[in-house]
Amino acid sequence: MNIVGIVAEYNPFHAGHRWHIAQTRRRLGECAVVAVMSGNFVQRGDCAIEDKWARTRSALEGGADLVLELPTVWACASAEWFAWGAMSILRAAGAQAISFGSESGDNAALAALSLCLDSGRFQAELRRFLEQGLPFAACRQAAADALLGQDVAACLTRPNDNLAVEYLKAARRLNWTPQILAIPRVGAGHDGGAHPEFPSASFLREEILAGRLEAGNPAALKYNERGILTRLRAMDLPDFEALPDSGEGLARRLYQAARRAVTLEEVYAQTKTKRYAHARIRRLVLWAALGLRETDRPPSPPYLRVLGANDRGRAALKAIDTDLPIITKPAHGRGIALMELEARCTDFYGLCRRHICPCGWEWTHSPVIL
Fold first, then answer.
1. What's the 3-state SS for the chain?
2. Cα 276 to Cα 161: distance, rounded to the nearest angstrom
3. Which of 79, 111, 204, 323 has the greatest number of beta carbons closer than 10 A?
4. Cis amide linkage into residue 238, ω under 30° from 0
5. What does the alpha-carbon distance between residue 4 and residue 32 come to, in Å, rounded to a whole number?
6. What torsion, rounded to 10 degrees, do the Cα atoms 25, 29, 31, 34 define?
């Protein structure tokens, strides 16, 4: 069976995602679409607006066949780690192709960038710009521009293209060469607004949180703000230094901000400088709130966790040839360190919902089957 992989957050699932899946099938023909989806927390350092099982159901109803979980330690991480976790799962699942939304739709430019960023020439150029004291993102952009030209380097300024470059880098490091499908995005852009057919996910989240769009029992860090501030104030500087991606003085700034700020937005604002991206700060705060440390993230995913499937997805699941355990029932994850950690994250997620949920949901919720 031909398997195509998609990396997604589906936060929430919307018409643009349905269109992307349909376009993928139009290009590949008959295939099983396997989505690796972030669990209850997402890369921007916040809760997913709906829980992972609700989003799984929407994905299956929208055209996906099998949904596998991207654990929190990769889902809420830098683009490089996010891509590494997702590509590792798709490779283990036997995907022959990967499909992703892209602002440019330019396979050649994305491939050229992925090769460039792994080259010695790029590292030399990057060091040259970093020595000028510029922010890392600006230095990365300038180095790519110097080597490949402005048109190709511009992909790094576009969120989906930037992630696509990381997907290609990760696949190459895994010695994996899947077919690549860069599907041009339609409708509102990333973090865009309303659109008659394809509104952005950020617009839909705002509508849900404002009560103008129904979504059951939505989640957001703001619903548990006091609890998160309590956790931050209880941490010492070494605790912040144990968080991933907390170097360059960021741990100390976050520690100091946590002791002064009275809202999460103040924590972010008082920590931020031109050197630190806002999303990086939000992720650190979330890792701190979840009680996670850099050492909690293993080198690669230790299992495949099934969140849901339809008939074609179950057939694809049976065809997977991997040494990794495949978790289809919650009880199968008992005793696996990362699964136990994921259960702890889900318990915390329950505190971040509009209406608080009890503990233990990770162990009682079976995969969604359509």
1. CCEEEEEECCCCCCHHHHHHHHHHHHHHCCCEEEEEEECCEECCCEECCCCHHHHHHHHHHCCCCEEEEECHHHHCCCHHHHHHHHHHHHHHCCCCEEEEEECCCCHHHHHHHHHHHCCHHHHHHHHHHHCCCCCHHHHHHHHHHHHHCHHHHHHHHCHHHHHHHHHHHHHHHCCCCCEEEEEECCCCCCCCCCCCCCCCHHHHHHHHHCCCCCCCCCECHHHHHHHHHHHHHCCCHHHHHCCCCCCCCHHHHHHHHHHHCCCHHHHHHHHCCCCCCHHHHHHHHHHHHHCCCHHHCCCCCCCEEEEEECHHHHHHHHHCCCCCCEECCHHHHCCCHHHHHHHHHHHHHHHCECCCCCCCHHHCCCCEEC
2. 21
3. 204
4. no
5. 6
6. -20
pLDDT truncated to tens, each residue of the chain (370 aa)? 799 999 999 999 999 999 999 999 999 998 999 999 999 999 999 999 999 999 999 999 999 999 999 999 999 999 999 999 999 999 999 999 999 999 888 889 999 999 999 999 999 989 988 888 777 788 889 999 999 998 898 898 898 999 999 999 999 999 999 999 999 887 645 555 556 577 888 889 999 998 898 888 999 999 999 999 999 999 999 999 999 988 888 999 999 999 999 999 999 999 998 778 899 999 999 999 999 999 999 999 999 999 999 999 999 999 999 999 999 999 999 999 999 999 999 999 999 999 999 999 999 999 999 9
The residues with which 98 forms a beta bridge, in sequence order, are 5, 180
97-102 and 32-38 beta bridge pairing: unpaired
Phi, psi of 308 (to 5 degrees): 180, 165
Count Cα atoms within 13 angstroms, Cβ side, for 38.
26
Tokens found for residue 130: 């970093």
The set of residues, in sequence order, having a beta carbon less than 8 Å from that of 221 and lying 6+ positions away, is 46, 47, 228, 264, 286, 289, 352
Alpha carbons 300 and 71: distance in angstroms, whole number: 11
Residue for token digits 């269109």? Answer: 19
Tokens of 120: 């010695």
| 137, amino acid identity | A
Which is nearest to 263 in space by CA: 291, 235, 222, 209? 222
Q: Distance of alpha carbon 352 from its chain centroid, rounded?
A: 19
